[in-house]
Design brief:
Bound molecules: iron/sulfur cluster
Structural class: alpha/beta
CATH superfamily: Aldolase class I
Number of domains: 1
Strand content: 15-25%
CATH architecture: Alpha-Beta Barrel
Largest sheet: 10 strands, mixed
Length: 340
């Protein structure tokens, strides 16, 4: 089947790092997943990312350090206070230190992300940053995923030792959440101004979201001097109005990520590392999850062994360490680290 001419032209412009406008991105998103246009987009974006990260992969360990019923009550979230089964939970110091030791047993996890619900106590978060700094290898990047922040709060967290932050301007902000889209975007700007390497979240994508909604959300964060965009699907939560809408098909998520990768291929990240990949996070980053002790039906933890194997299976043969050196990600390394 011949490719749609306009789509082929737009994909080619993305490949050659020309800026695509919001309407053009929306046009590409209007094709079905697994269509010829979608398949070409996925192949081109994957090549762009592998070239940008020079074949080097990374692991991020995300740790929920402070969770519980959240007064922000976002309509899609399992911590929303009106429906959650979660109890208040602050990770004990000894548990956090144990996790860091377990995560960094082979000193090959570059990023540790500390996550809280939307009413975080920043003193507690600062304390956790200190514990990670003490327990993790030198050079480990400490990333925060927390509530909206004022400029002064961002500076304090940076001073405490955090290097990066993830913050999302969610689709449906202000309607499905009690938070204001302007405050979310202002927090992203505050984090950037304080010197954080910021990853902006495009989420929580569901099957009902239109190409126009996805495009609009992406272009809102594109020119904010963030280093990355993390595109994630909504996790269905029983008791939410979104549960009946179901989950985004993984092939559609891959297609959306690919098109956003091509649409932003021209973008120069403000804090650029040779191995960091394209603006939209690609398959070179594997995230594993720790914590969530406060919720009864929390998903099982995925360990770093799975992450190494996932990266190996995806064809990456090098893994970035906290100190900036790379390790060969071959079968021997998988065996030595208990990953096979
Ligand atoms: S602010 Fe975050 S933790 Fe709180 S309800 Fe919303 S998504 Fe959930």
């Amino acid at each position: 089947m011949a490719l749609d001419k306009k789509a082929a032209e737009l994909l080619s412009r993305g490949w050659y790092k020309e800026r695509l406008e919001e309407g053009e991105c929306e046009y590409l998103l209007s094709f079905r997943d697994r269509s010829p246009v979608a398949n070409l987009a996925v192949a081109l974006a994957d090549r762009l990312n592998r070239r940008a990260c020079t074949g080097i992969s990374q692991i991020c360990a995300a740790i929920a350090v402070a969770t519980g019923p959240c007064p922000c009550d976002c309509g899609f979230c399992r911590y929303g206070e009106s429906r959650t089964k979660a109890k208040f939970y602050d990770v004990p110091d000894a548990q956090l230190s144990r996790w860091i030791q377990e995560i960094e047993a082979f000193a090959d996890v570059r990023q540790i992300m500390l996550m809280t619900t939307g009413d975080a106590d920043l003193n507690g978060l600062t304390h956790c940053i200190g514990l990670v700094k003490d327990a993790a290898p030198a050079g480990t990047q400490i990333i925060l995923d927390t509530r909206d922040l004022q400029p002064e709060e961002c500076r304090e967290l940076k001073k405490a030792g955090a290097t990066g932050a993830r913050h999302a301007r969610r689709i449906g902000e202000g309607q499905d959440t009690r938070l204001k889209a302007t405050d979310r975007l202002q927090t992203i700007d505050n984090l950037v101004c304080a010197g954080f390497a910021v990853t902006a979240g495009i989420e929580p994508l569901g099957p009902e979201h239109t190409p126009a909604e996805i495009s609009q959300a992406f272009y809102e964060i594109l020119d904010r001097r963030c280093c990355h965009a993390d595109v994630t699907a909504r996790v269905p939560v029983v008791g939410t109005k979104f549960n009946a809408q179901g989950e985004l098909n993984p092939a559609r998520l891959t297609q959306i990520k690919a098109i956003l990768t091509l649409a932003s291929s021209w973008y120069n990240q403000p804090i650029r590392e040779a191995f960091s990949g394209t603006f939209v996070t690609g398959t070179n980053m594997a995230t594993v999850w720790y914590g969530d002790e406060g919720i009864a039906d929390a998903p099982k933890q995925n360990m770093t062994e799975n992450a190494r194997r996932r990266l190996f299976n995806a064809g990456y043969d090098r893994l970035l360490r906290p100190d900036g050196n790379v390790t060969e990600l071959d079968l021997g390394y998988l065996k030595r680290t208990g990953s096979v």
